Amino acid sequence: METAIIVLIVIAVVLVVAGVGFVATRRRGDAELQAGAAADRAASSGRSGGVGTLERPAVDAPDVADVVDEAVTDEVVDEAPAVVEPEVIVKPSFFERLGKARSAFTGYLGGLVGLAKVDEEAWEELEEALIRADVGVKTAMGLIEDVRDRASEAGAEDGAAVMELLKARMHEELAGKDRSLTIADGETNVWLVVGVNGVGKTTTIGKLGKRLADDGHKPLMAAGDTFRAAAAEQLTTWAERSGAEIVRGNEGGDPSSVIFDGVQAAAARGCDVVLADTAGRLHNKSNLMDELTKVRRVAAKEPGHVSEVLLVIDATTGQNGMSQAQVFTEAVDVTGVVLTKLDGSAKGGIVFAVESELGIPVKLVGLGEGVGDLVDFEPSEFVDALFE
Fold it and tell me: Fewest 10 Å CB contacts: which of 30, 88, 266, 355?
């Protein structure tokens, strides 16, 4: 009996405690709901700008400026559009870009500078050094003969004085040649770009197109290399980049017909320069040289006017580039040379070999991969960059 009474008392106590907890919890929940509703009304008032309707205890009331700031931060502020800067093309420096060529060139000649007297053995070593620098046998022999005569007349015996005489002689060797690119007024000019595979003809055309467009001309590119896979696509990309017109043919088609169509399209569209790409002819294949001769002949048909035939040579090929130049000159009457990759491992002497042995001026040189790195050949800057 006593046990039952104790159990009833415990149950009663538990029920009382539970009831009290329930009432307290419900009151807290109601209070939180009321606070949340008040906050929602305040936020709604803040977004609508109605700060006068906000009702809160004095200690919680925000300053009017705070409410205004909150409203402002809720707004979306449009950012100013980004300013697109025009492409800036900086002319590369011969001195900076010919570091490798200078190292190779002066490396061959470096032993001469410190000599107190240049004897017969030293003269022979100097000649060999020029040959190793790709100047060529004939050209090297001619340069050394002239420098020896001048040294004898001036009484110059030490190595440093002989080096200065050699530098002056090289300046003279490259001076006085017409290196301008010809554009005849009122004509549909054709610049035929030729050379063996891999020397950079298509890239050269792309850079020439950008250069012509920047100078106010209206170039058209004719994709005459119909045999190399993706050649036309590569040229099309360059045309889009430079704003030039483009004429393409079928893959494996007749290159002459593509050049002919390019000339006709240029005349119809008011383009003053046709940049004609050609296949990378192997200079020891006579049938391919004959085909290139045909391309040259077709390009000259009315209204076309072939004003430049530019032979592209990879400067790193050294004396092998000379054999290329000789055969191409016989086939298409080359008017100027473009030396690419002169900033690479080229020794630089090929410039003297081309000009002295073939009589063809170097008109353009590639000093890098950028669109502005195909520049006019400056002989004075070139020689100074090799020696300094």
Answer: 88
